Model the fold of this input.
Amino acid sequence: MTKEVKKIAPKEAPKKLAGGKTGKLAKAETKQIGVSQSRAKKIKHSYKVKDAENALVLKLKDGDVVIEMFADVAPKHVARIKELVRSKFYNGLKFHRVIEDFMAQTGCPQGTGTGGSGKKLAAEFSKLSHKRGTVSMARAMDPNSADSQFFICFTDCPWLDGQYTIWGEVTSGIEFVDMITKGTGANGTVYYPDEIISLQVIADL
Done:
């Protein structure tokens, strides 16, 4: 939702050498634990998602937020979100519009709510309801104008149902979403906004 958009109402474990010495290991055996297959597997499993390919981890200043995506409900949106995530499009973007007891919006490269990735998406409205933790697409007046901007609901917002494409929900870390800096300007404008530290597909970790 922008100034010109329709405003929504309020790797295996390392070898252990005898005597604790590192010795001379082959290059392939000197991988750090942090990037080992076993550690990567533990990291993925720690998020406890149904499908790691269709789940995201959103890193905020206060903690990690897990978003599970509805590939069966909004397949085109989920596919596009993953493309943008894997290109690191969202990293560093601001939560430019945040309204207390409503929602936090991000995904604008300009940080003003007026920009996007340049690719519009046809609406994939569904019977899902906007509830606390719902992740949904922002758009302009045209129902088929969603691009890269999305919002996360702080609370239930049923009046949005059937008008915006819901593509995911927060399944862990909603308390960190609650801590996103709220806007004090007109229509929820945030003067000193929080940023997305990173957004990743959990399968890629």
Notes: Residues 78 and 96 are 22 Å apart (CA to CA). The chain is about 15% helix and 20% strand. Residues 11-35 have pLDDT under 50 and may be disordered.
